[in-house]
Specification:
The complex is a heterodimer of chains A (486) and B (488). With 486 residues, chain A is α/β, with parallel strands linked by helices. Chain A contains 16 helices and 11 strands. Chain A has a domain of 338 residues: Amidase signature (AS) enzymes (Alpha-Beta Complex). Chain B is of the alpha+beta class and 488 residues long. Classes of the chains: A alpha/beta (486), B alpha+beta (488).
Chain lengths: 486, 488
């Protein structure tokens, strides 16, 4: 039965293909068929169905079962440049942009036998926490109608939770993988900065951007991460560290692990159910032989303002290349300046413009020292907080978000409230650390809630293991009815 | 204007003004590929044929530093006797322009790769040191072409991303001659090092010129104007002269100088305001997050130091000591690395004095006439050396040598062969010479008479006659000696 195929997790699908119980073509068609029936979610920006089925058939003719993703169909966030497949970054300015090159991360997936079935919706240039800034429209959270799927990787979280793709990849600049994972009851990993190559990923904030996997469970996440993370000389910030066989090494034994609980994350006005979720996590750690240690990350309060200086500053410069001269959308103008102004006014949406304005402002002479330079100093202090904490603990446990998913439109006109969504995720990007969000429960509305495990730099294995232990004990179930399929 | 004692002063109404000049030289790094991409840097290719995805700033493209360019910058820094900074940072200089695909130029702002150094100039009234403020690496922009299509501006990105070294001098230059000497010296040092070809026609060397004036004797610097992108020494001198005079005029009329950026119009020979300080761009410099800070260790710098060749200053010193050349001669011979190489090859097996004279005399004249470099010289160093040896050992006279040289210039023929084939060997047999002399004496009895009665000047006449009769082959030294004996 088709529907059974899409219910399978990534590792299960790989296993069944390797055992020849399923063909790549069967699997690919199953996910495409379900995707076709799920247009209401608006998870896709571009579909690559026909081509994908062709590729699946080619795979089946001469299958290579040594590959880690043998003929597995995967839809990816539309921030990854994909050769000959339109890449928009959720923006009008790149509406018709078709790259002639492949991002390193998607190339790694292709090299392991993966097949790209489409490009997933996201906030414009990954700037947003609800997928509402996309030029290609809102995305529905399969958890409930008119609920945001989180952002910026909202198309990814929605497609994954709705089983339109067995796994997916996103990018995380301030929480863009972990928050949507948390909102949709899925697993999302933001790796250490320098772990996954940024080559071919449309840049938002270069010093914060990291690609990472989004999956149904921790096992799938380990497999995807193992494939995505490679040292890449095409990215000067890529780090040549020893990469593990994360899936093989996955281990639920957390005996003796020291887990830090940062007191600063108990923010005022946080819903009681988030607190209870956190307590539940703490209890599981203890029951499994882990040691809970109270820690302090004193500069946590400054993380959000720091982020909203650093990220827009870099973005304002990174987005300067979208000027209508070389590629992408161009509006007619009287002269060069007029053309720039019209192209960028019409090509960018409000949130992107807002951040370009903020970024330009904080880098301007006379304001640079007070904003950008200060923010860089605070960023260093935030990183120092973590370094200090990691002298005492192996990992840190926090909630992923201060609330569950909200309604579409609810926060659209209140940027600050929207930004507050990233309060638990942003510090990790500023410190360049790895963190995973796993589904850990539901609020009283029945919406998923996530717990976040933060690790030491390049120690993804530890947080995958801790997340694996939590996952086993929580046995979370996503109550998704196929409400969008008539 | 007065240029006494090497001074460059502008005089108005009995007020003497001194001109203060600083240069920001943009030197293209000699490198096969660009600063942050693997595209070729070859000059003169078809437009937009040397453009990578990085150079054209496609989404998701990232810069990766070309290590060769770093090495070249460090080399140049060492050549400028400058401090090499072990930690430097690449910054983004943000501005919009059609030929700047990224919307920012990657440059170095607060932390350049090379710090303070100095360059020694040989001026007629002695040596002068010009301070170097810094040297930093940056990307070149593309080229906007406005005159091909009447409706549109066309953009060529071949230059986009090419590595430049910006070498900033202190405001230590005072005269147009110093500007000339400074540019030539920088060029010479970089050519010795192989870090820049110094080709001004191809734009490998350009400069922004900072000019200010002050009353002679004043200590405080005047307000400066920056003249952008001047691409020849002649234009730099013209621009400075115009600009300095303009500033003096403004001050003399009771005005004050506005700090501004100006353009030099080579056709009208004048500078024009481009933008004032108020309109100056806010470049919003910040460290490029795509590139890590550049860290160099002592070992790396020491390795480069080991490969530094002998530079013009040291070579000049050696030439003076070893070859007993005058500072003037040494200067000429070391000014260009290829000339110095040629000279050393010739002088290896030949008389140094003759080698110096023949290279700076006949050979330079020939190169000038043909407008070619010494590397393209039609006469090889080996054959010039042979020619000089023929003079030195008395086989031919200097005069004959000149006619042999004339033959050599068409096809680099061996001078020994030429002398043999044409029978140009000098007549040095005293017997033969005596016969020639006797003949001249017998044929000119009146002149002999006159000479003997005191007309000394006639001695030259006899020499001339002997030389003429020998078709110029008689050894002039011996002719002199024998004639003297005969006539006295």
């Amino acid at each position: 039965m088709m529907s059974n195929i899409t219910d399978l997790k990534l590792v299960e699908l790989v296993d069944k293909i390797k055992k020849k119980e399923l063909s790549s073509t069967e699997v690919t068609i199953a996910f495409i068929e379900r995707s076709k029936k799920s247009k209401k979610l608006n998870a896709y920006i571009s579909e690559n169905y026909e081509n994908a089925i062709k590729k699946a058939k080619i795979f089946d003719q001469k299958p290579d079962f040594k590959k880690k993703l043998p003929g597995i169909p995967i839809a990816v966030k539309d921030l990854f440049c994909t050769k000959n497949i339109r890449t928009t970054a959720g923006s009008k300015i790149l509406e018709n942009f078709v790259p002639t090159y492949e991002s390193t991360v998607t190339q790694n997936i292709l090299d392991e036998g993966g097949i790209v079935i489409g490009k997933l919706n996201c906030d414009e240039f990954a700037m947003g926490s609800s997928n509402e800034t996309s030029y290609f429209g809102n995305v529905q959270n399969p958890v409930s109608e008119n609920l945001v799927p989180g952002g910026s990787s909202g198309g990814s979280s929605s497609a994954l939770a709705a089983k339109l793709t067995p796994a997916t990849i996103g990018t995380d600049t301030g929480g863009s993988i972990r928050q949507p994972a948390s909102f949709t009851g899925t697993v999302g990993l933001k790796p250490t900065y320098g772990s996954c190559s940024r080559y071919g990923i449309v840049a938002f904030a270069s010093s914060l951007d990291q690609a990472g996997p989004m999956t149904h469970d921790v096992k799938d996440c380990s497999l995807m991460f193992e494939i995505m993370s490679t040292y890449d000389t095409k990215d000067s910030t890529s780090v040549d560290f020893k990469r593990e066989n994360y899936l093989t090494n996955l281990n639920e034994n957390i005996k003796g692990k020291k887990i830090g609980i940062p007191k600063e994350y108990r923010v005022d006005g946080m819903p009681k159910e988030i607190d209870e979720l956190w307590e539940k996590g703490i209890k599981i750690i203890k029951e499994n032989g882990g040691q809970i240690i109270e820690i302090s990350l004193p500069n946590t309060n400054y993380a959000l303002p720091t982020y909203y200086i650093v990220a827009p500053a870099e973005a304002s410069s990174n987005l300067a290349r979208y000027d209508g001269v070389k590629y992408g959308f161009r509006s007619k103008g009287e002269n060069l300046i007029d053309m720039y102004e019209k192209t960028r006014s019409e090509g960018f949406g409000d949130e992107v413009k807002r951040r370009i304005m903020i970024g330009t402002y904080v880098l301007s002479s006379g304001y640079y020292d007070a904003y950008y330079l200060k923010a860089q100093k605070v960023r260093r202090l935030i990183k120092n907080d973590f370094d200090e904490a990691y002298k005492k603990v192996d990992a840190i446990l926090t909630p992923s978000t201060p609330s569950s998913a909200f309604k579409i439109g609810e926060k659209l006109n209140d940027p600050v409230s929207m930004y507050l969504n990233d309060i638990f995720t942003v510090p990790i990007n500023l410190a360049g650390l790895p963190a995973i969000s796993i589904p850990a429960g539901h609020d009283k509305k029945g919406y998923p809630l996530g717990l976040q495990v933060i690790g030491k730099a390049f120690d993804e294995q530890s947080i995958l293991n801790i997340a694996f232990a939590l996952e086993k004990n929580i046995s979370f179930k996503n109550n998704i009815t196929d409400w969008w399929i008539k | 204007m007065s240029k006494n004692n090497g001074e460059y002063l502008i005089i108005r109404n009995d007020n003497k003004y001194e001109v203060i000049i600083g240069l920001e030289v943009h030197a293209q790094v000699l490198s096969e590929s660009k600063l942050f991409s693997t595209s070729s840097t070859k000059f003169g290719s078809e437009p937009n044929t040397q453009v990578s995805l990085v150079d054209a700033a496609f989404p998701g493209m990232l810069p990766v530093i070309n290590e060769h360019c770093i090495k070249q910058a460090v080399k140049t820094g060492i050549g400028l006797k400058a401090k090499i900074n072990k930690r430097s940072i690449f910054d983004r200089k943000n501005y919009f322009y059609a030929d700047l695909p990224q919307g920012y130029q990657i440059s170095q702002y607060k932390n350049p790769i090379v710090g303070e150094g100095s360059v020694t100039l040989d001026m007629p009234n002695g040596e002068k040191n010009i301070g170097i403020e810094r040297l930093h690496l940056e990307q070149d922009a593309g080229k906007s072409i406005h005159d091909i299509d009447p409706q549109n501006t066309l953009v060529d990105l071949n230059r986009s991303g090419v590595a430049l070294m910006e070498i900033v001098s202190k405001p230590d230059l005072r005269t147009l001659d110093e500007v000339n000497a400074y540019i030539k010296k920088l060029r010479s040092i970089m050519r010795y090092l192989g870090t820049c070809d110094g080709n001004m026609q191809e734009g490998s060397l350009r400069a922004d010129v900072n000019v200010s004036v002050r009353k002679k004797g004043d200590k405080k610097l005047g307000t400066r104007c920056e003249i952008k992108n001047v691409n020849s020494i002649k234009f730099m001198q013209m621009a400075i002269d115009f600009e300095a005079n303009r500033q003096v005029d403004v001050i003399e009329e009771g005005g004050s100088i506005d700090q501004e950026t100006r353009l030099f119009d080579t056709k009208k020979n004048e500078t024009r305001s481009m933008r004032s300080k108020e309109d100056a761009h806010d470049y919003r410099y910040f460290p490029d997050p795509d590139l890590l800070p550049l860290e160099l260790n002592d070992n790396y710098i020491d390795q480069i130091k080991k490969d530094i060749p002998e530079l013009p200053d040291e070579k000049k010193k050696r030439f003076i000591e070893k070859f007993k050349l005058s500072p003037y001669e040494a200067n000429i011979l070391v000014s260009d690395i290829e000339i110095s190489k040629y000279f050393e090859e010739v002088s290896k097996n030949s008389d140094v004095k003759l080698a110096t004279n023949w290279i700076t005399g006949e050979l330079f004249a020939l190169l000038n006439e043909k407008n070619i470099e010494i590397t393209e010289s039609p006469i090889s160093s080996k054959n010039l050396s042979k020619l000089i040896n023929l003079i030195k050992d008395g086989t031919i006279s200097g005069k004959i040598a000149k006619s042999v040289f004339e033959i050599m210039r068409d096809g680099d023929k061996d001078p020994i062969t030429i002398v043999e084939e044409k029978g140009l060997k000098q007549q040095s047999d005293p017997k033969e010479l005596e016969n020639l002399i006797n003949k001249v004496i017998t044929e000119n009895p009146k002149n002999v008479e006159a000479y003997k009665s005191g007309k000394d000047k006639l001695f030259g006449f006899f020499v001339g006659q002997v030389m003429k009769n020998s078709n110029g082959k008689a050894n002039p030294k011996l002719v002199n000696e024998i004639l003297k004996k005969k006539l006295n």
